[in-house]
Amino acid sequence: MTRALVFLDLSEMDLTLMRQIAQLNKTFEIDKLYVAHYIELQEFTGDLKAHFPNLDRPIEDILNEELTERAQEAGLKTEKIEVVLFQDGSKDNMTDWINQSDVDFCILGKKIVYRGTGIFSGRMARLLHKPILFTTETSRLEIEHLIVAIDFSPFSKKALEFALPLLTNNEQKLTAYHVFRLPGAYFPFVGGNTRNLEDEQAEDKLKRLRKFVADTKKADDIELVVEHAGENTLGKTIYDYARSHFTDLIVVGVKGNTDKDELLIGSVAEQLIAVDKDLPVLLVK
Amino acid sequence: MSEKKKNKYFDIHKPVFWPASFLIVSFITITLVIGEPMETVFANVQEFISDYGGWFFVLVTNLFLVFCIYLGFSKLGGIRLGGKNAQPEFSTAAWFAMLFSAGMGIGIIFWGVAEPMNHYLNPPVEMGTDKGNAMQAMGYSFLHWGLHAWGIYALVGLALCFFAFNRKLPLTIRSVFYPLLGERIHGWIGDVIDVIAVLATLFGLATSLGLGVQQVSSGLNYLFELPDNVTTQVLLIAAITAVATVSVVLGIDKGVKKLSELNIRIAAVFLLFVLVVGPTLFIFESYIQNLGYYVQNFFKLSFWTESYTADSKAGWQNGWTVFYWAWWISWSPFVGMFIARVSKGRTVREFITGVLLVPSLLTFLWMTTFGGSGIFLEMSGMADIGEDITSNVSTSLFVLLDAFPLSGIASAIGVVLVINFFVTSSDSGSLVIDSITAGGKLDAPVGQRIFWAVTEGAVAAVLLVGGGLTALQTAAITTGLPFAFVLIVMMYSLYKGLNREYAMTKAEDTKADLSAYESRLKDVIAKRGKSIDKTEK
Fold first, then answer.
1. CB neighbours (10 Å) of residue B195?
2. What pTM, to 2 d.p., does this model score?
3. What is the model's pLDDT at position B367?
C-alpha cells in the first residue's frame, strides 16, 4: 500500500506533475494519491464564502472538481484520488495534517521555468516530516538509475531503506554514493603527494561504504561510489556526479525536525533542492 | 519645499543657502580683517583638534571601512541600487573608468611625489635602515590613499545612491537620514545637516584648490621663473576661477565633462610617461612589494596612534594621518555624490568591491610611480632631491621630473594637468554644493553655480593669505570633525534603510507569488463556477 501526496497550485506545473506521477506509477504502484491544495489569498478575512460572494456553489466544490480533473491526468482511477483543501491562515494546519496522516511521501514541483520564487517548497522542505520528492518541469520520473547520498549517519541508512523498494525490476540500478573532503589541515603539514592521501582516504571510505550497505537487502546489486569533493561544495559534487551518470533521482536522508521553529535542513540537502538544480531529489526524513 | 525662490539666476533652499553663505562670508571677512595673526590661530586650532581628536579620526575611519565591508558581504549585499529591476546605466568597464577618474585629482598630483618622499626622509617610526624607511614610507602613503579613504567615500556614496534611487529622495545629504528622522529631514535638523555638508565640502575643496594653486605657482616658477609667493597664488586663483566660471556657464556637457575626459587622458599619458622614463622595472617590482607590505601591515598601520612614540617624533600623525582622514571626510559629499550618480543599477556588493578596490589600486600605482621613483633616485644617490622636497612640498613634482629626460615638457604638462583639475574640481564642486543648497535639485540655475565657484576660489585664496598650507589643513580638519559625527549617524541610518529594503523585497516576492495564484484561481472559477450576477442578467 503506497500513499502519495502531491501539491497542486492550479498552475501549468500541475499537468507536468501528473504526467510524472504517471511515469512513476509504471515502476512503483501508487495505491492512493492525495491532492493537496492550499488556498492562499492576499486579503483574506478567514471566510471563504465572504471572499467569493457571487458564486452559485461553494468554492470548495469548484476546486474539488478542477483538481480531480487535473489529477486524472496521472492515469489513476478516480477512487484512488482524494482532494484535500487547506485554507489560508496558518500553514501549520496543512503540515500538521500531512505529518499526522498515513501519507508515505509527498511530491512537490519546484518551478524553474514558470518563475515561482520557491518560497513554498522551501517551507515545506523544512516543516514536513514525510519524505519529499522534489521534481522540476524537465524531470523524468521513470526511475532507472537512482543514487543515494550516504554520510554513514542513521539518516542516510533510512534514505537507503526508503530507496530500495523503489527498485521493482532488474533493469534498475542503485548507487550508494559517498562524497568526502580532506580536512584542510592536512595540506600544509603533509609533504609529498596529496593525490595519494586522497586515494588512501577514498579506499578507506569505500570499505566503510561496503560495510554500511552490507546488511541491507540486495546489498550485492548496489553500486558503490566514493568521490572527493575538491573545490566544489558537497551538494554540487553529488549533483554533478548524478548528472554525468544519467541518474534519474537523488535520494538524501536528512534529520527530521522535532521542533517546528527549526529552520535548517542541512546544507547538502539545501544545495540539492536549490531552485536552479533540475534533477529530482527525494528528501527522506 | 515651499520656501524656494523662483528666479532666473537663483533657485535656492533658503534655510540652507543663507546660513551656509553667512558662515562662509564671515569666515572670509574675519580672516581678511585679522590678517597675518590668523596663521597662529589656524595652527592652534589644528593642533588642538588633532591632539585631542586624532584618535577619534583613526577610530572612525576604521569603523567606516569595516562597516562597508560588512554591508558588501552580508545578506544586504544583494540589494540592487535603484530597485530590484534597475539596470546599470554604464557598462562595467565604463563604470570602472569613472571610479578611476573619481580617484584622480589635484591631491594625488600634489602629494604623489611629496608624500612618500616626506615619510622616507622623516619616518614616523625610525626603521633603522634606508630600505626599512622606504618600505614604511610607501606603506603609510598607501594607508592614507587606500581602502580607508575609499571606505569613507563608499559609505557616503552608497547612502546617497540608495536613498536617492531606491527611496526617490532628493540627492542631498539630509535624505540619508530618512529612516531616523522621517519627514523631519525637511525640517530644521535636515537644514543643519545640509549646512554642515556644504561647509565641509567647500572647505575640503578649498584645501584641494589651495594645494593645486601652490603647485601651479611652483611649476610656473620652475618653468618661467615667476615669483612663487602668495600674491602670484591669489592671482592664479582669480585667473583659474575665471576659467572655471566659463566652464560652469558652458554647462556640464560642453564644460566640465569635456575637460575631465581630456584630463583623465592627459593624466594617463603623464603616468605612462613617468613609468617609462623613470625606473620602470623598479616601479613594477615595488608596486607588487608595496601591495604586499600594505596588506601584511594593514591593521598595524591603520590602528597606529603614535601612542608609544618619543616626544620628539610626536605630532607626525597630526600633520598626516589625521589631516588626511579629516580631509577625506570633509569632501566625502563631493566624491560620494559623484560615485552615487554613476552607480545606479549595481548591487551593494558590486558597489563596495568596485569603489574600494578600483580607485585604490590605481592610486597605489600612481604613488609607486611618482613617490617610488623619488625614493629610488634619493636612495640610489642618482639625484639629490630630498632637500628641495622637504623645504617646499609643492615643488616636489617638478624636482622629480627634473631628474628625467624631457623635464621641461613634462613639467608643463604637470602644470596644465593641475590647472585643469582645478577647473574641473571647482566646477563639479559647485555643482555638488549647488545641489545641496537648492534642496537636492540637479539642474539649479547657472547664476548660483557661478556664485559657488567664485566662493570656493575666494575661500582658497583667503586661506592661503591667512596661513598657507597650515590654514588649508586646518580648514579640512575643522570641518571634517563635525561631519565625522554626521557620518557615524549615517552608518546607522543606512543600515536601517538597507535592512528595510531587504525585508520589503522578500515581502514583495511573497506578494508576487500570491497574486499569480489568485489570478489562476479566478480563471478556474470563471471556467467552472457560475456567477450569480451573470445568471441574473
1. 23
2. 0.71
3. 94
Instruction: Please state, in angstroms and rounded to a whole number, the distance separating the CA atoms of residues B261 and B423.
Output: 13
Which residues are A253's β-sheet partners?
Answer: A284
- DSSP 8-state class, residue B111: H
Q: Which residues of B touch A41 (CB under 8 A)?
A: 514, 518, 521
- Rounded Cα gap, residues A180 and A233, in angstroms: 10
**CA A261 – CA A123 distance, rounded (Å):** 11
For chain A, give the mean pLDDT.
Answer: 81
In whole angstroms, give the CA distance from residue B143 to residue B139. 6
**Residue that is written with C-alpha cell 585667473 in the block:** B239
Mean pLDDT along residues B178-193: 88
- Predicted local confidence at residue B138, as pLDDT: 95
Please state which CATH number belongs to domain B14-536. Answer: 1.20.1740
Residues sharing a CB contact under 8 Å with residue B235, sequence separation 6 or more, in sequence order: none
Contacts of B518 in chain A (CB under 8 A): 41-42
Question: How many CB atoms lie under 10 A from the CB of residue A191?
Answer: 6
| Interface predicted TM-score (ipTM) over 0.90 | no
Q: Contact at 8 Å (CB) between A127 and A257?
A: yes
Tell me which chain B residue has its CA closest to the CA of residue A8: B517
Structural domains of chain A, with CATH: 3-135 (3.40.50.620), 145-284 (3.40.50.620)
Whole-Å CA distances, A244 to A153, B284, B343: 26, 46, 41
Q: Which of B:490-529 have CB within 8 Å of A?
A: 509-518, 520-521, 523-525, 527-529
C-alpha cell of residue A267? 546544507
CB contact under 8 A, A119 and B510: yes
